[in-house]
Amino acid sequence: MTPVLTWRWPTPSGLPPLPLVGGALALLAALALTAPIVEVDFVRLIGSVGRMIDFAGQMFVAPDWAYVPQLLDKMLETIEMTVLGTAIAIVVSLPLGVLAASNATPHPAVYRVTRDLLSLMRALPELVWALVFVSAVGLGPLPGVMALAFVTVGFMGKFFAEAIEVVDNKAVEGVRAHGAGWLQVRLFAMLPQALPDFVGTVMYILDHNLRAAAILGLVGAGGIGYDLVMSMRLFQYERLLLIALSIYLVVTLLDRLSDQLRSRIIHGRRV
């Protein structure tokens, strides 16, 4: 006999707990009260659906194949900016992540200072730092790489620290019991356990940095961003379609690569 599916909460009465209901109602009330501040108008939003569909439909045009060589050069520059900025960030953020982990830092003062430094580095978006570095070193991909690396250190250092903080302490105690020193414990007990999370974080950051690098050209920091914005402003949909597809393909390949690397590290085999 097929069991009857009943929608009941795991409470004695089968109803949602009162604090949960009260919190949800309070949240909805706060959203309703603050909606006018950000000009949220559902009638206006629903009315704009037709215009958004029209805009999306205009992108389905014959691609500008003559633009492909220039697109490949700009996308290659964007990918190089992404990889180089992320590689620099990994080298810098890994030791900072160790210092920012509560169970790996040598002193609570070091932990607090490193955490505050990482928060400062990720406080502003890449576009703002790109403006700063463009004013310092001039136009080109170099300020874009610097901006990506700077902000990425802030995010990646935080992710690394949180991955280290949740490692199994039994392995740490076992390595320490064999007379391992401070650095050896972190290298041979903590980092191997956190390696799958490290790989996942790095691939996610690569995904994010690729999309960030795609708009840094707006301020003269290299990449495909300038062509992307100008194609939208000049209604060059035949170029915009190629740019969007190329970014989608690269992001998809990074996602597949992330799955393969994580499966090799976790399971030791291909999936």
TrEMBL record:
A Pfam family per the record: BPD_transp_1
Major location category of this protein: membrane
The keyword Repeat appears for this protein: no
InterPro entries assigned: MetI-like (IPR000515), MetI-like_sf (IPR035906), PhnE/PtxC (IPR005769)
Residue ranges occupied by any ABC transmembrane type-1 domain in the UniProt entry: 75-258
GO cellular component, one term: plasma membrane
Family membership: Belongs to the binding-protein-dependent transport system permease family.
The protein's name: ABC phosphonate permease
Keywords in alphabetical order: Cell membrane, Membrane, Transmembrane, Transmembrane helix, Transport
Compartmental location: Cell membrane
GO molecular function: ABC-type phosphonate transporter activity
Superkingdom as given in the UniProt entry: Bacteria
Bilayer-spanning residue ranges: 20-43, 81-101, 127-151, 213-234, 240-257
Membrane topology: Multi-pass membrane protein
Organism, as annotated: Thiobacillus denitrificans (strain ATCC 25259 / T1)
